[in-house]
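Task 17 of the worksheet. Students: predict the tertiary structure of the chain below and write it out as structure tokens. Keep your answer in the requested format; marks are given for formatting as well as content.
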Amino acid sequence: MPNTNNRVGWIGTGRMGYAMVERLLGAKVPVSVWNRTRSKAEPLQANGAVIVDQVKDLAANDIVFCIVASAPDLEAVCLGENGLLSGSSRPSIVVDLSTIGMDQSAAIREKLASKGVTFIACPVSGNGKVVAAGLLSAVLSGPEAACQKVMSYLRHIAPRGVSYAGEGDLARVCKVAHNVMLGVVIQAMCETTLLAEKAGVPRHAFLDFLNNSVMGSMFTRYKSSALVNLDWTPTFTAALLRKDLDLGLGMARSMDVTMPVASATRELVQAHMGMSSPDKDFAALLETIAGFSGMTLVSENKLVPTGLEIPAAAKA
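Model answer:
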């Protein structure tokens, strides 16, 4: 169980952050929370969260977790005016669960270290529904002793697995590489599903076969319902996927790693962004590839399990 002797703060309650805080509160961990739009965090009060008005109000906590959209957002909440470190109090550890680049992370780590704060990079794999289902995984890097201190909290947030990658910002490498693969896999899913459909196989039948084979995964199962029913409710947008593909390809160039499949995927995502609503989930790439293939898609209106269904006992 998490050590409730530590005072815990939390920055960011978007789709992911909200569900993570719920898991900590469910483990009886007292959590103080700040979100840019306070009203989005306020429902957490019913489960015991304390909502604060400014980021700097979290500075007296021992450990502060952050999950924000970008590196500039992270720097602003930690080091900006009225930010976490703007006053005399400061936490001993900041754990960042966002997806940012290695160079950006290293720069923020150095600035926090100059103020006596240990920085842990801890990107995660999943979305809000994955968090709620208890299937989130995480990878962290930084000083090993500090990582061990926060491990009990992370194992409750990400019970599927928490991996220690080593010192510095190596966890960022893992997450960027992971999200490059995410892009390549969704592209492959779209192409092969459309190939089967154009030959006459319903999407739900092909994906059921795929998911029951050695090629099936938690990701392919989770995305199958969206591809079958053309449900583009966003969990992750094409713009965010492009950002991560760019981070991965930039890293590859700097290390002379050849990534031709990832490069092609990046350009297909770019083309998709010019043809689709930015508010759609990245799996809407299926529609763009269908258009390139002379296909018009319709929803199959099938109930397709996602693999993320929460058992009734867990809801009680």
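Marker's comment: The longest strand covers residues 161-166. The chain is about 45% helix and 10% strand.
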